From TrEMBL, chain A:
Upper classification of the organism: Bacteria, Pseudomonadati, Bacteroidota, Cytophagia, Cytophagales
Alphabetically ordered keywords of this record: Electron transport, Transport
Pfam families for this protein: ETF (PF01012), ETF_alpha (PF00766)
Keyword Electron transport: yes
Residues covered by the Electron transfer flavoprotein alpha/beta-subunit N-terminal domain: 3-189
Name assigned to this protein: Electron transfer flavoprotein subunit alpha/FixB family protein
Similarity section: Belongs to the ETF alpha-subunit/FixB family.
SMART domains: ETF (SM00893)
From TrEMBL, chain B:
Protein's recorded name: Electron transfer flavoprotein subunit beta
Regions crossing the membrane: none
Entry-linked InterPro entries: ETF_a/b_N (IPR014730), ETF_b (IPR012255), ETF_beta_N (IPR033948), Rossmann-like_a/b/a_fold (IPR014729)
Occurrences of domain Electron transfer flavoprotein alpha/beta-subunit N-terminal (ranges): 23-208
SMART domains: ETF
Family statement: Belongs to the ETF beta-subunit/FixA family.
Annotated keywords: Electron transport, Transport
Length: 326, 246
């Protein structure tokens, strides 16, 4: 009956979003009076798996099949379904990533389970109900959803759960093999290309994001955004028009039609704050806006603001950030 | 090539979101509905592929009669015909069952959807349909081309990178930018859309797996604290000492 958490690896380590999912899963397990088991697939160091004990995981089932180094939905589903069966799990927890949500959706069909993606809080369990809160209407609201079937599948929104860390606790690691067939790899990717991430900060997982809009005037000024990001250990992002004109790559565009981010700190430089932009960033905990127009709508959604020319203000921020002891 | 494009009907991106009846119901009052923006990418790419390779594009919506203006809009943009499953879309599982029933009957080569619906933000229906049909689902894809008559090549976004996938027809994919430049209807399209077939069918007896109980809204920000531009460095100190985010 243990709660099963699927953890994703990146460069041999566990992704931050998966540490959040593991923390979420172990808290659910505790509330249900059971233990939490993680399932890991592909290329992850065994020490990293054992360290999941710090997030309250007691056991990790690990399928190290070489063919699973890259994401293959059908094969991953089979492995996780096997783990769920072995553990008689009724609650499965994923990170709400492109991989986690995809596998979660397929498992919901296979296990006839209730699925909630984009979940922001721990479930409420009372009177036989199991209710989760999830983000809806592009960050403008939350919905409380009752998961009515026996099996419940939850994909946890990034940066919405604290990572538990009980230093020193370790999980036992056991091998798992799901007897995969050739046909499980029919839709395997031909190629996986990872972006160069400066300092390894992935935009969807970043705790701090520095983002530039059309007010930055041109790609030649982007070194300012990058320098500030580097000083703060942040990822960089941009508004839609900026990626449409080609100043920045498409994968940096945040908003309604781009990536959704929910960092602890979002710094918007030269971005007007159109409602479609806000939809992708409004669940950030603290929002800073730098804009030369005091009437820019973004100030209404901000916690801190500076009215001024980005090209003059950002260098001062970089200076101040350099002076911080880290 | 027979392509099925699934569109959902969602509040316009600028809508104010409110709830009524003790926060149990979404307040449709004054809300303008549009085709889900991501679905416009799926629709436009389907029309482009049809123009290049021949075939047909069918749009499908699971919804009540009030979605028909947007189904007509999809026809005006260039789809050939449309199907509406006459039912309230209770949850993703229910919708996926309806789409699967239609897709199985129609024998489509490709089922295209949007990345996610901007109202319920599920990112669920496409993978569920793929699983129910037993065919690959490639989501979210930002590039879709045909390699030959039976194989498509897609590029899919994953966190921190992309994957290049080649799949045999039939398959499911969900679209996101920059797959194509979504089209808007022109006058001729609007005229011909009126006479294109729109079939209304009854739902299959599908069940829902979840139940929306209530809604809430995020806490309002208490207001912005402005820092003088000449003293910009002060902001960094506030972020560390007051907001405690650095
Ligand atoms: C269906 C739909 C979906 C959309 N999806 C998205 C989305 O996902 N993401 C997104 O970002 N947008 C999206 N948009 C576009 C959105 O409506 C806005 O057009 C866009 O966000 C504006 O980008 P911007 O703020 O960079 O540019 P602008 O609106 O041009 O604003 C530039 C800002 O910079 C300020 N400025 C100018 N010079 C300076 C200076 N020297 N120093 C400081 N400030 C300066 C100006 O005062 C202004 O506020 C979408 C639109 C639609 C219709
Ligand atoms: N009611 C519906 N009718 C037709 N297609 C839908 C419906 N709801 C969702 N879809 C499709 O499924 C995609 C993903 O939706 P969702 O899983 O709700 O985020 C959407 O972009 C649509 O293409």
């Amino acid at each position: 009956m243990s709660v099963l958490v699927f953890v994703e690896g990146l460069n041999g380590e566990i992704k931050k979003s998966s540490l959040e999912a593991a923390s979420y899963g172990s808290q659910v397990a505790q509330a249900m009076g059971t233990s939490a088991t993680a399932v890991a697939i592909g290329e992850v160091h065994e020490e990293a798996l054992a360290r999941l004990g710090e997030q309250g995981i007691s056991k990790v089932l690990y399928d190290a099949d070489d063919r699973l180094k890259q994401f293959v939905a059908d094969a991953y589903v089979k492995v996780i379904a096997k783990a769920a069966q072995q553990e008689s799990s009724k609650v499965l927890v994923f990170s709400n990533s492109n991989i986690g949500a995809a596998v979660g959706s397929k498992l919901a069909v296979r296990l006839n389970g209730s699925l909630a993606t984009n979940v922001t809080e721990l479930p409420k369990m009372d009177g036989g109900n199991f209710t989760v809160t999830r983000g809806v209407f592009s960050g403008k609201a939350f919905a409380q959803v009752n998961l009515t079937s026996d099996v419940k599948i939850i994909a946890v929104k990034k940066n919405s759960t604290e990572i538990i860390s009980n230093a020193g606790n370790t999980a036992t690691v056991e091998k798992l093999s799901a007897d995969l067939a050739e046909s499980d790899f029919a839709a395997a990717p031909k190629e996986t290309v990872m972006q160069e991430t400066d300092g390894g900060v992935l935009l969807p997982e970043a705790e701090i994001v520095v983002s530039g809009g059309r007010g930055m005037k041109g790609p030649e000024n982007w070194h300012l955004i990058e320098e500030l990001a580097k000083e703060l250990g942040a990822a960089t992002a941009c508004s839609k028009p900026v990626s449409d004109i080609g100043w920045r790559p498409h994968h940096e565009h945040v908003g309604q039609t781009g990536i959704t981010v929910s960092p602890n700190l979002y710094i918007a430089v030269g971005i007007s704050g159109a409602i479609q932009h806000l939809a992708g960033v409004n669940s950030s905990k603290v929002i800073v806006v730098i804009n030369k127009d005091p009437e820019a709508p973004f100030f209404k959604a901000a916690d801190y603001g500076i009215v001024g020319d980005a090209l003059e203000v950002v260098p001062k921020l970089i200076e101040a950030a350099k002076a911080l002891d880290k | 090539m027979k392509i099925l494009v699934c569109i959902s009907n969602v509040p316009d991106t600028t809508s104010k979101i409110n709830f009524t009846g003790d926060n149990k119901e979404f307040d449709k009052n004054g809300v303008q509905y549009v085709i889900n923006p991501w679905d416009e990418y799926a629709l436009t790419r389907a029309i482009e592929l049809k123009e290049a390779k021949g075939g047909s594009v069918t749009v499908l919506n699971v919804g009540e009669a009030d979605t028909e203006p947007n189904i007509r809009k999809a026809l005006a943009i260039g789809a050939d015909d449309a199907i509406r499953v006459n039912a309230h879309p209770k949850d993703a599982f229910f919708v996926a069952q309806q789409i699967t029933a239609i897709a199985k009957e129609g024998g489509y080569d490709m089922i295209l959807m949007g990345k996610e619906s901007i109202d319920y933000n599920g990112f669920q229906v496409h993978n569920m349909v793929g699983e129910m049909m037993g065919i690959p689902s490639v989501t979210p894809a930002f590039k879709l081309d045909m390699v030959d008559d039976s194989t498509a090549r897609l590029e899919r976004e994953i966190e921190g990178g992309k994957e290049v996938v080649e799949v045999k027809l039939p398959f499911v994919a969900s679209a996101q930018q920059p797959m194509c430049e979504p089209r808007i209807p022109n006058m001729r399209g609007i005229m011909t859309a009126r006479t294109k077939p729109l079939k209304v069918v009854a739902p299959v007896g599908g069940e829902a797996m979840s139940e929306y109980v209530s809604y809430s809204k995020p806490e309002k920000k208490s207001g912005v604290k402005l820092i003088d531009a000449d003293n910009a460095g002060e902001l960094i100190k506030l972020l560390r000492n007051e907001a405690k985010v650095l």
